[in-house]
Amino acid sequence: MSSTNKQQAEKFFTKYLSNVLKSSPKKEFFPMQPNEKQDSYYKKRTDNFVTRDHFKCYAKEDFGGALQELWKNEHQLKDLSTHFAKLAEELKKESLDEEVSSFVYAMF
Amino acid sequence: MREIFEYHSKIGYRFIPEVKARIIHESGGYLVQVNKSGFRCNHDFFKQKKSPYRALLFGDSYTAGNGVSNLNRYGDVLEKQIPQLEVFNFGLPGTGTDQQYIAYKEYAKDIDHDILILGVLVENIRRVNAHYRRFVNFENKVQYRAKPYFEIVNEQLVLKNQPVSKKVLNANELSGKSVDKGGRFPLLGKIAKKWNLKHTIQKYLHYQPFPEYNSCTDKWKLLSAILKEWISDSPKPVLVVPIPVYHYIEGISNACHYQNRFEELRQETGCILHDPLPTLRKYSDKEKREFRFKHDTHLTSKGHKALAESIVPKLRDLLLIKE
Amino acid sequence: MNELVLGISAFYHDSAAALVRGGNIIAAAQEERFTRKKHDSSFPVEAINYCLEEAFVETNELDAIVFYDNPFLSWDRALKSCMMARDPQKIFPKIANSMLGEKVWVEDYALSAMGSLGKMNKLLFAEHHISHAASAFYPSPFTESAFITLDGVGEWATTTTGFGDKNTLQFVSQIDYPHSLGLLYSAFTYYCGFKVNSGEYKLMGLAPYGEAKYKSLIYDHLIDVKADGSYRLNTEYFGYINDFVMTSDKFNKLFGGEPRKPESLITRKEMDLAASIQKVIEEIVLLIAKYTKKETGSSNLVMAGGVALNCVANGRLLREKIFDKIWIQPAAGDAGGALGAALSVTYNYFENDRVVSTTGDSQHGSYLGPAYSRNEIKAFLDFHDYPYTEVSCATEKAKKIAKAIYEEKIIGYFCGRMEFGPRALGARSILGNPLSKTTQSVMNQKIKFRESFRPFAPSVNLDKVSDFFEMECSSPYMLLVAFVKKERQLPVDTDTDDLIKIVNLARSDIPAITHVDYSARIQTVTEESKADYYQIIKEFGNLSGYEMVVNTSFNVRSEPIVCSPRDAYTCFMRTEMDLLVLENFLLWKKEQPNFDETEDWKKNYELD
């Protein structure tokens, strides 16, 4: 990661994301601990048959719009959609030559 | 990526027979199909004709079609536009007219045909005078290989460097050797290219990529001697097509010197000369720019098509083929 | 019906490309084989190039191009995980750069690499676990089957179960990030000093040396498993939400100290940890399998995802007979996602009918990579003046190779199309004598330059497999582990932690492939799947009475498996192999000229 890109991302964090994190109690996007009261941890899918619709993604020209749609029920994130799209444009130049870490599973 | 060339003791190298490969390229990649004889031709080289007319086509990478798939090359477009014609493509990338002539003697002499087409990239004047050629090896390292070449001794062509050495040389082993490294001022060219000024500078300075054509230089004498011998060797009519580099097509450089030399060749040998430059220059600036790739100066499919379309009427006339 | 679909996987682990025409797999290959960079995750320019070369088509002839993952949803997950972290500010720049700066622009990479996005002029995106499920079900020999996918993480899903029927895929259940069997296993891989994303199979190989002493500690603290196999991790023990490592201080404390340093001595502790996590994984996989069987009612099971490469767990699943038949995608990891995505588009997007092979699966033995012609190999050998003998008669060639193996020579064998997936299956393999007590140590130390504890696998002709192993079925992709027959096992008395001493004890009459717990990772070979290889094994059987050879991948440690004749020759000359077979060309080491290299080649390969 270039230092410019790092700085851009840090600036973005301070300007937008930190406010979201400060403004509300930490949101539980997913459970962090087991729950003995639950009988099962399986989640059922509503869209369980794979159809043509599963291959739709986003037009890269409308990344912000697609994020807004994805986060339509998560207002704080929804409000940041266009900013994320702008950040993506800014960071785009970074090349893919970054090594995959051998200390952590590559998941982003 | 697959290796597609093999050593050849007489020519230096040829395509590996029957290889089918896709070559990664700035265009996204292109398909290469090689026939049994080791040439990038869609036909195997049968002695007897299968179509009413047959042309044997020789040249370098512009003829072999670096950057485009087989069917998009000017030789293949000729076939498409003149259905009675089959074209045997002997184009071999990186070779000079000397190596192409050797390939002709080695592979083409006994093949029945109606016309011999020599697609002479004007840059070949430099190659025929070189004894070593630059290439990029599998590790992306620049190295040099020997090539066969001719010398004029007592007004006769004498073949040298045959059998061609397999030895691969590094730059530091080349001192005193005649090498074609590509371009007149490679270092300056690189710097100018980096600043996106290359073509502006070239145009402003009336850049002449091949001053070897300015007069009857020794280098031209060698190229013309090879062409003369080849033309006189041929039992069938010979069509010589000087293929211009983009500097001439796009009006960066004045083409009159090389045009004059080839005209002299026509007068001396009686060959048929077809200069495609006037036709190619008629296209708009935008279209002309699209005849080559963004970085690679080889012809794009559009460039090949335009070149073929300039040749078609001449070929029809020569073969008396009605439209 | 004959849509040409290109599948691409990239950016996470092994990048790859696969090309499918009307459901028929034309080609598939991992990028690492061409770039010579192990587990290369970069956009697979060369693998795509190869796939188009194999079909000999232009990019604008492609009916669809599909990416195996949805970067849009992965961004959603990565961002939310970051927001849940203790110090989001530390995590954000990294995820923003990786996801927003690169992965969401995959279409641009594709366009730049291929010059065209095919007839659709856009990229399709398949969900990660849809790609895995499709890679498992569609090439399988089953008309209908249950499926399980298990890996580290896709967009959100880490585990899915479902049912495939003809050309349809139906998901039943799912477990989402951060709860993941793949991540759990990788945490132990990291803690035991192996590289995450590549050292998992080493941990599996180490497991039989240990005792499952830490099993209850794992169940008590790290993971809660319900009766139906669903599970949840206690994220306090893991580092991947709050940091860029797999385990937290709490994890390290629980297991008595810092993670083992890579390349340091492997101790009893690592062996026991490996055994423990292996047992836990096996038990959970069995529970998930039982649940899936109940939910789907199918007697067949297909699997994919990185965890499905755990052939020890697969072997146990087979022995438990929860399902009558099991088929596992040989490229079960992310590389196989490229294939799955292409197949999923074929059947779920274009809705083609699926024709199930009547003679086996549709994976073509996983020989889906490039082959090299006689002319190409000869051109290479002749240019360098490497001495060779050309043997055109298949029987004569098989006899010569079998004789060399019988004489305990080590052979580099390069024949036919390269394998797709992590296992060498006799197209790019190093072969040895399974009866020899020294084969394992010679191969490990003089050929592969790798850790001495790692076992080798046998290739055995299918009709003889039950003579040697407790196994009746086929295992063409080396994804099942079975025990050497009781009557062949030799008692061993050992009281040492020294891995080299343990390894060198003969445990059966086929010592080179008998692991410390008497197990073996088996490849069954048939004449139909690979005639040349079958014949060599057969000829070796004629000499020795054992229709079996040792088969390990044709590479040295940390090097991708060889792809081209040049790669094969280079690897051959860098090691102490005796004979190189390049299709019909036989090259003896003792006849080769000196192989001078200006640099220390071992520096080119970072240890895995």
From TrEMBL, chain A:
It comes from the Bacteria. This is Uncharacterized protein.
Automatic annotation (TrEMBL), chain B:
This is SGNH hydrolase-type esterase domain-containing protein. GO terms for molecular function: hydrolase activity, acting on ester bonds. It comes from the Bacteria. It comes from Uabimicrobium amorphum. The lineage of its organism: Bacteria, Pseudomonadati, Planctomycetota, Candidatus Uabimicrobiia, Candidatus Uabimicrobiales. InterPro entries: SGNH_hydro_sf.
From TrEMBL, chain C:
Residues 402-588 form the Carbamoyltransferase C-terminal domain. InterPro entries: ATPase_NBD, Carbam_trans_C, Carbam_trans_C_sf, Carbtransf_dom, NodU/CmcH_Carbamoyltrnsfr. Keywords: Transferase. The keyword Transferase applies. CDD domains: ASKHA_NBD_TobZ_N (cd24098). Residues 5-343 form the Carbamoyltransferase domain. GO terms for molecular function: transferase activity. PANTHER family: NODULATION PROTEIN U (PTHR34847:SF1). Belongs to the NodU/CmcH family. This is Carbamoyltransferase. The lineage of its organism: Bacteria, Pseudomonadati, Planctomycetota, Candidatus Uabimicrobiia, Candidatus Uabimicrobiales.
